[in-house]
Known about the structure:
By secondary structure, the chain is α+β, with helices and mostly antiparallel strands.
Amino acid sequence: MARSVRETYDEYAAAGRLRVSVAAWRWATGSGLVPPADAGRGLWSRGVVEAADAEAVRAALRVIGAGTAADRLTEALGSPLRCRPRVTASAVGHLVRAGLLVFLGGEAEFPDVHPDQVAALGHRRDLAALLDRHVPLGPDQAALRLGVRRTDYDQIVRLGWIHPVGSVDVDYKRQGGLTTVPLYSAEDVALLPVIRPAVDWRALRSVRPGRRSPLAALEPAGPDGDRLLLTEVGRIAGVGRAAVVNWRRRHDDFPDPVGGTEVHPEFEFRAVVDWLLAHDKIEVPATLPVASLLVAGTGGGKLPFRLEDPWLVLAVDADGEDRLTAWTTDDDADALAELAADEYGASVSRLTAPGTAPLAVTGEVRVIDRYRAGAGGLRITLAWPARLRGAASPRPSGGQVRHGLPYAAPGPECVCRRHACGGLTPADWCAEHGRAAEPAMEWHPADGVRCIQHAPDHRQPALR
């Protein structure tokens, strides 16, 4: 009796036919070394299997565990890693289920994966957004993602601002045994500061341990749920009420009112948020704003620092004090404190932060606060006298710009960099204010906080 010839192979049969491991076959098909299943779901034709190069399939396989993969993805996110939990081994399982990594064996929750694919994922510019989209967070991780204490996050859950998308059973053994832990969408967590603009999130992130949560005084929404007026919709989107009225008129899919009056309609909160996201009126913040800081100590030398979520408060006059608060690493915080420990503090050669022009500070920069949030992360606050602040040089190396007021209004041929105050940073080749003009300007001192203070009777002697 003739033996029947197999015409289709699943992954186990295909691996056996080639005498390679199942993991090797999975990687070969997942990486494109072998064509995808052509004989049905998870099935390959005999022609595809027999045409595969067994040696190439075997040689292509390399495996790392979920823990190692998680560490490499955490490193790829960069430092400082603040307001974002470390990637865990279970997160790698979620990435496999999302189709971003090929399952090569091991436990489904903590799978083995290929190091090359992990490296490629780590190089993606949207890695942070991918993690938010596919990896849910436990309560402690969600609190860290927001940069708040766990007790503050529990208040957010109590208020009904966020709801679980799943759960996982965790065995804490001596700490309570098997416990069901709720999981939350990382995108929903990251979106909270955008859709709840009435909350002072900076203040919430600065509440010291042991203090009552500012959210404890708030009451959850009533039985009808959260509702929004047109003005509140505009506040979320960063526009005025008139713009929202225009959106309602132009877009047929804008949510219908669920209450209120014809003049002041009310809309269901989640429906509005979903519409704003779908129409790109708001976006999920996957990363934090970043400030670039170049600091010089009195002993010479400059050190660069990366600060996340910077909050720069500039004094309105020269007698005040400027302050900069941001997330940083322990090592960078120590380095900044060491630079500023001298009697005259450190100098800022260049600070580039969102929302303000690059500035420099000539000394007396000091560290006035280091605060670790209850959920993790380190915030540091720098301060300096406002009178020492000036405009930073356009050169990458930094330094203060010599900023002057011309004796007369600049002519139409002037090529100098102009400022709103009427002052100029002269270009060397400018016929009116460059090196050929003598004297053409009166120079602002480096310690001028506001150029408007330099009226003619307060000007410094002309530079000769």
